[in-house]
Amino acid sequence: MRNARFFANILSATLVALLALAGLPARGAPVNAQSTPSFFDPDLRLDRPTLSGVRAIRFLTADDYPPLNFTLPDGSLTGFNVDIARAICKELGIGCTIQARRWDTLIDSLAGEKGDAVIASIAASNDLRNAVDFSLPYYKTPARFIARKDAAPFAATPTGVAGKTVGVVAGTAHQAYLNTFFPRANAKPFVTLAELESALTSNAIAIAFADGVTFSIWLNGQQASDCCEFRGGPYLESRFFGEGVGIIVRKDDDELRKAFNWALAEIMKNGVYSEIYLKYFPIDFY
User: Fold this and answer.
1) Of 6, 143, 142, 146, whose CA–CA distance to 67 is shortest?
2) pTM of the complete model
3) Is-contact 143 210, C-beta < 8 A?
4) Ranges of H-type helices in 130-281
5) Other residues' Cβ atoms within 10 Å of the Cβ of residue 13
């Protein structure tokens, strides 16, 4: 998910966050509340953790990936991940600190006990599970169809996109998924996501298929020029798009992992998760 183009969007993302903090809707925000995802079975009953002796949880994150985690002009950390961490600590009744480090050093910093957990949009994978543990996912990265608003209606199905040109970033899981399950679409590969987005705004293509989180951020920004919208629903097949994003802990910290699972379930049940999600993603990516 990480992409260098987010550096160019940091001002836009900062403004979105500031508007949200002020209680004002960001550009593209819905008038009415929308449903938000939950990755926890509502009937699941987790035991409340004790965490005896834990006075504070030290979270590690990055500060260069808006709106997930970034720095405001006053130097303070904010973003979806940061607010989730703070909500967890509040639910657990434990203080927390959140420190920014370079993204590619986060796992090593955790191993070196520079922090207790990493919350920085690092997706779970088999390779990482050999070194660290993950909480249950608190968000996933679905693939989505996006289309120009002036494009003719179509069903986001293999039959509905048959014969249509669909832009996709070359060499990605999205291209592989499109080729596998939408073989009659005319896939048009682009080298970068920025090129794909530019093709949409310039009307060089009318339909694209890529990461829903990235598209949601783009649609809510100025660069999209209000050109486009999601069509159809999310595609979440883990074989292509991963298991989702969880909080990372050390292998020997099972109690903390269980505590995070409990707190995540609670903030999803009590509506806090929805408030944070809509604050940073007014255009729902599911």
Assistant:
1) 6
2) 0.84
3) yes
4) 173-181, 193-201, 212-219, 238-241, 254-269, 272-280
5) 22
Residue 286 lies in a domain: no
In the sheet that holds 77-78, the strands lie side by side as 64-65, 69-71, 77-78
Domain range enclosing 127:
5-140+243-280
Looking up residue 20, the CATH number of its domain turns out to be 3.40.190.10
Distance CA 176, CA 254 (A): 36
79 and 35 inside one domain: yes
Count of other CB atoms within 10 angstroms of residue 22: 7
Return the higher-pLDDT residue of 5 and 195: 195
The answer to whether position 167 is within a domain reads: yes
Look at residue 20 and tell me whether its pLDDT is greater than 90: no
Q: Is 63 left (phi over 0), alpha (psi -120 to 50) or beta?
A: alpha
**Residues 235 and 93 both lie in one domain:** no
What was the pLDDT predicted at 25? 36
**Domain-embedded: residue 61:** yes
Q: How much is the pLDDT for 51?
A: 78
Contact (CB, 8 A) for 58 and 97: yes
Mean pLDDT, rounded, of the chain: 87
In a domain, 256, yes or no: yes
Polymer length of the chain? 286
